[in-house]
């Protein structure tokens, strides 16, 4: 009887060990995120699908972790709370500069020649960037590439400085909000991501009889995936190549449609040299 009791105790201990809550005994989770540049519900839907795809393609658990703003995405990546992040051009550069060994690994086909658009109400009479002097204006997020960095650069090229606006420029926080603020007349004009604008027009979310594009910037590189170097230690040597391959091989049309792209293509850190130079000139990159 005592021998049977001992066997039961040992068996229970073995079962408990198998179900240990020790984090070191769990499979590592690939933590992905993205800058919050659009409607949170759309982002949750999109990155939920991306998580499922990557989990299957890589054979590891994948978890989407939303962030509150652009700066939070860079901070979380810097301290190692995020492994793979969908960044805009500027935030991607900022993140890589703070994490040695981090690299841009993939971008959408449309990101190799991206554009920002300047919008206004049709009745405003604005026809060029120089016409913006003396008018109210809003950017998107302060660290958005297509919603602030490149628009400010092209404003400067056209001879328009921030001090030329009537009052300080606004920072809406997202491309969708920029459209809403200009449509409502809160600001005379604003700048945003061209792909978001086109998508909202296609979905009839914008009344183009009232709000129109009056300037499209020259092309620049923008959004891309940045991978943290620690994944090689947590998931094994060669994991970075597996992630890159999985993204470039992604062919699920529902995911690509939500990204507004036909496919993902390789990205290199050197693609964002112009972004870094403009960021340093404007003061959004100080490292």
In short:
By secondary structure, the chain is of the alpha/beta class. The chain has helices spanning about 1-20, 40-60, 70-80, 90-100, 145-155, 175-185, 195-200, 230-235, 240-250, 255-260, 275-280; strands spanning about 30-35, 60-65, 85, 105-110, 115-120, 135-140, 170, 190-195, 210-215, 225, 265.
Plain-language structure description:
This protein has helices spanning 2-18, 40-58, 70-78, 89-98, 145-157, 175-184, 194-202, 231-235, 239-248, 253-259, 273-282; strands at 30-34, 62-64, 84-87, 103-108, 116-121, 137-139, 170-171, 189-193, 211-216, 224-227, 264-266. It has two domains: 28-112 and 221-282, D-Maltodextrin-Binding Protein, domain 2; 115-216, D-Maltodextrin-Binding Protein, domain 2. The chain has 287 residues and is α/β, with parallel strands linked by helices. It is built from eleven helices and eleven strands. The strands form two sheets. The protein has a six-stranded mixed beta sheet, with helices on both faces. The protein has a five-stranded mixed beta sheet with strand order 7-6-8-5-9. The radius of gyration is 23 Å and the shape is globular. Helix 3 packs parallel to helix 4 and helix 5 (145-157) crosses helix 11 (273-282).
| CATH topology descriptor of the largest domain | D-Maltodextrin-Binding Protein, domain 2
The radius of gyration computed from the alpha-carbon positions, rounded to a whole number of angstroms, is 23 Å
Topology pattern, helix = H, strand = E: HEHEHEHEEEHEHEHEEHHHEH
* Cross-sheet strand order for the largest sheet: 2-1-3-10-4-11
Indicate the percent of residues in helices: 40-55%
Structural class: alpha/beta
DSSP strand count: 11
CATH architecture call of the largest domain: 3-Layer(aba) Sandwich
What is the total number of structural domains?
2
Distance between the termini: 71 Å
User: How large is the share of residues in beta strands?
Assistant: 15-25%
Helix tally equals 11
The unreliable regions are 1-24
| Biggest sheet features | 6 strands, mixed
Question: Mean of the pLDDT scores?
Answer: 91
CATH superfamily of the largest domain: Periplasmic binding protein-like II
Structural shape: globular
């Amino acid at each position: 009887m005592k021998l049977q009791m001992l066997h039961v105790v040992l068996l229970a201990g073995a079962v408990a060990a198998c179900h240990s809550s020790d984090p070191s005994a769990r499979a590592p989770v690939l933590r992905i995120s993205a800058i919050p540049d659009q409607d949170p519900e759309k982002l949750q839907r999109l990155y939920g699908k991306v998580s499922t795809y990557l989990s299957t393609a890589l054979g590891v658990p994948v978890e989407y972790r939303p962030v509150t703003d652009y700066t939070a995405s860079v901070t979380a990546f810097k301290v190692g709370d995020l492994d793979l992040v969908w960044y805009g051009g500027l935030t991607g550069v900022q993140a890589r500069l703070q994490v040695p060994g981090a690299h841009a690994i993939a971008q959408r086909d449309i990101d190799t020649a991206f554009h920002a658009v300047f919008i206004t109400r049709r009745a405003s009479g604005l026809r060029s960037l120089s016409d913006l002097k003396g008018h109210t204006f809003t950017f998107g997020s302060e660290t958005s590439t297509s919603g602030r960095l490149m628009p400010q650069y092209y404003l400067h090229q056209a001879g328009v400085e921030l001090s030329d606006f009537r009052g300080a420029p606004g920072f809406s926080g997202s491309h969708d909000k920029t459209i809403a603020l200009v449509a409502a007349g809160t600001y005379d004009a604003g700048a945003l991501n061209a792909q978001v604008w086109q998508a909202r027009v296609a979905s009839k979310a914008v009344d183009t009889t009232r709000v129109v594009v009056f300037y499209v910037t020259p092309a620049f590189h923008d959004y891309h995936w940045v991978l943290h170097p620690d994944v090689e230690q947590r998931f094994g040597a060669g994991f970075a190549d597996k992630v890159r391959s999985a993204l470039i091989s992604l062919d699920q049309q529902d995911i690509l449609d939500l990204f507004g792209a036909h496919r993902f293509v390789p990205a290199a850190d050197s693609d964002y040299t112009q972004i870094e130079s403009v960021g340093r000139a404007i003061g959004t990159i100080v490292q």
